[in-house]
Amino acid sequence: MKRILVVLFLAFLMGTSMDAQTPKVTERRLTNGLKLLLQEDHSVPSICYTTYFKVGSRNERPGITGLSHLFEHMMFNGSAKYPPTVFDKIIEAGGGYSNASTWNDFTDYWEEFNPGTLDKVLNLEADRMRALRLVKENIEQERGIVMEERRLSVDNDVTSKMMEDLYAGAFIASMYHSPVIGWMKDIANITLDDAKDYFKTYYAPNNAIVIVTGDFTTDRMIAAIEKAYDDIGAQAPPRKVIDAEPAQEGEKRLELHKVAELPAVAVAYKSVAANDSDFYPLEILSTILSHGESSRLYRTLIYDEQIAAEVSASVDEYIDPGLFTFYVQMRPGKTTAQAEGEVYAILDDIQKNGVSADELQKAKNIAQANYIRRLETNQGRGFLLGFYEVVHGDYDLMFDVLKKIESAKRDDVQRVARKYFNDRSRTVVTLVPEKTEATESR
Amino acid sequence: MNLRSLLVALCILLFLATIGEAQTVNIPAYTVQTLDNGLRVIIMEWHKLPIVELRLTTRGGSSFDPPGKEGLGSLTSGLLRQGTTNRSANQISDAIDFVGGSLSTGAELDYSYASCEVLSKDLKTGLALFSDVVLHPSFPDSELQRERSHRLAEIEGYKEDPRTIAGLAFSRAVFGTHPYGHAAIGTKSSLQSIKRDDVERLYRDACIPNASILTVVGDVESDEILKELKSIFGEWKKGTRHASTVAPPKAIAGVHVVMIDKPDVTQTQVRIGNVGIERTNPDYAAIMVANSILGNGFTSRLVEEIRVKRSLTYGVSSGFRANLVNGLYVISTFTKNPSVREIIDVALGEVKKFRDSGATAVELEKAKNYLAGEFARSLQSPGVLASQISGVEFFGLPKDYLNTYIEKLDKVTLAYVQRVAKKYFPINDLVILVVTPAKKTEPLVKSLGEVKVIPFDQAIQ
């Protein structure tokens, strides 16, 4: 039954250009618990091989924040059969590339390569799941690199620092409190034993999903993966993450004093989990608020009032409830109080009067166009299959997204605006720019 | 995730063979024709996705900005979509957002562009908006004021970001007063000096069919779309091609250390380089191969020595930005402040070694395959295809340029790599620019060459 729905749905998306290459998803589970999602598609003689591990900063605890991300780096540093740096060399020499990313809820690795490289990739991937080379030298090497990454992307980036404070301020028990990259002192103090424990628990086959999209034959691919991974033993399942976040009972306001040129403000409301039925109306709301120059925020704060240099809004799509966030960077001489006033007035208006039929239709059209764009590469489909499997609990749900968006009514959007834009569950971070010490040119 | 990067043209056939064998890429056929008014029209049918990309490329980008009015080209392009004789700025953004499309305009060094992407069912809307902003902009004074104020704020924001500061200051340090040296956005004072007349004049003089290329890639029927384009763009009045040309910039001689002083940063941004190459340089493919060995990809020498062996950085790369008359050659990286000298020394040591000893056969083979794969994958979206085939036409590259690029990579020999390494990767003539707390780091770098210190708020004006 599932298969047929998938086929029909893609047929609808592809319109007239449908042919015999309709991608369908085949699902398997190996005896060691490794889940496979395979989508055969011969349009391009290329394969994307994606591995999701169900671990991210959400699975960490105080003292080891950033471990999931540090681990992502370690995964390229050699395994039993392959010395360090060989991984990328083999992939790149085959005309491919590899990369990985760590998120709150998962860590994903992918390679795109020509089909002739498949055996090599399978060996590399299976070997690092079986026996990653975890030695002191490697962890020290990656520690230094990650500290530079943190200096680059957070410590010397004012907006990222504000967002870090926003999540740390909004959440007190949820692990979304801490940044994916980790606190600097945790990065400095993570031990080899922490890493070994982590590997054993979270990088076990029963905590992973392999997603292959592109030019291959499904039966042969299943056999090849079985052969490569079959001897890797399952481990006890990881401890369950409890979202212990208590209800927020009042607005929290924080200030960040940092060298900067323009004041800015970040605002967050507590939102819902990705698989909550209110998620899609909230996503529609974020499109109406912030997508393009016709959006409510852009039109008011940048175009009409001309008080902001930059505006954005988005809703987290996480396993546990995340945030609905706003960011406004002011123009010179404008205050964050003005921005807050305008943003709250917009939210107030939507709560009272709802959104227009045109706005709702626009959000639906944007969702459709974006969805088509996202589905079309092997890599894009591989990412989405894994994302829905891990974050929403079932890859098949990705094929329902447009239906869910399409079914949303103006009342739903107004209802969620009323329910979640509640000033008692609001957190506000205000950037107070400080001047740097004066210097002279020479 | 960057969603645009996930676009793919499934109809492009990538005959990717096994390791060690050459890869080829077969670009879908396209036509180039010139209308009576001189407008060159490129059409590529591409039916796998219900998407269409429209793109206009017009000669004259930020390098044509008159001295004192830097930013004029970019501002003029930006204002195209802020009001026409038929639609207000708000009507334009309402209409394009409603169909989930994109409509953007801007100025690069050598050209200005307008581009629009829509689902093919919305092509009519897309084409109407795209042609309206290109052909009938009205440049309302209120929009000019609004756009200017927004850009002035943006420039202030640049000062907060060490990477942006480094990029802009490096162009300035290498090109100096050459037209490639200023930021496309201009400066606060040059933006203030731009009047509505300047914008109108630039549009009238530069945005003419006989200096433009109109490219359509996507789910269209060639004959139908050509007829439509002729009826819309055929009436566009021919003009006199802009007389001014940009002279090639002079390379920097000697080693110049430029310290952009930003006392609060805990990490120093580093840019090392000089004037590079023009887009039509006959050695282009060999330079790309050489550059890949030195600093492009996860297994380049710079990554190996600086990131993997020494943990000095999270990212390091070398590259060439090739334009009409030249461009930048630049090594980009960053490290914690106390390591600034070490990272510069290691990077330059690698360049020297590369110049002296060239590459190995294994490195050469890997670089060719890597670049071929990267090139093939990059051509998977209609947006990239449109910009690539427009580029071939704009820069006057041979018609089969894209189809033969992988062959050209494949022909590069070890001797050729070493020859271009010596010629295009300078070691004694360089700008070494750092965004750094100068008081702390000057003692570390001052022996590298003549040092100039510029406060960051003077580097970005």
How would you characterize this protein structure?
The complex is a heterodimer of chains A (442) and B (461). Chain A has 16 helices and 11 strands. By secondary structure, chain A is α+β, with helices and mostly antiparallel strands. Chain A folds into 2 domains: 18-229, Cytochrome Bc1 Complex, Chain A, domain 1 (2-Layer Sandwich); 252-433, Metalloenzyme, LuxS/M16 peptidase-like (Cytochrome Bc1 Complex, Chain A, domain 1, 2-Layer Sandwich). In chain A, the strands form 2 sheets. Chain A has a 6-stranded mixed sheet, sandwiched between helices. A 5-stranded mixed sheet of chain A has the order 7-11-8-10-9, sandwiched between helices. In chain A, a hairpin with a 4-residue loop joins β4 and β5. In chain A, α4 (118-130) packs parallel to α9, α10 (279-290) packs across α13 and α11 (296-304) packs across α12. Chain A is globular. The model of chain A is unreliable at 1-22 (pLDDT under 50). Chain B has 461 residues and is α+β, with helices and mostly antiparallel strands. Chain B has helices spanning 72-80, 89-98, 123-135, 141-158, 162-175, 188-193, 196-206, 222-233, 284-295, 301-308, 340-357, 361-378, 382-395, 401-410, 414-424, 438-445, 456-459; strands at residues 13-15, 24-26, 30-34, 40-45, 51-59, 102-107, 111-119, 212-218, 255-261, 267-275, 316-322, 327-336, 430-436, 450-455. Chain B has a 6-stranded mixed sheet with strand order 3-4-8-5-7-6, with helices on both faces. Chains A and B meet through α3, α5, α11, α13 and α14 of A and β1, α2, α4, α10 and β12 of B.
CATH topology of the largest domain in chain A: Cytochrome Bc1 Complex, Chain A, domain 1
The number of helices of chain B is 17
Task: Report how far the terminal alpha carbons of chain A are from each other.
Answer: 74 Å
The most extensive interface, with participating residues per chain, is: A-B, 88 and 88 residues
Task: Specify the CATH architecture of the largest domain in chain A.
Answer: 2-Layer Sandwich
Distance between the termini of chain B: 32 Å
Helix content of chain A: 40-55%
Q: Give the overall silhouette of chain B.
A: globular
* Largest pleated sheet of chain A: 6 strands, mixed
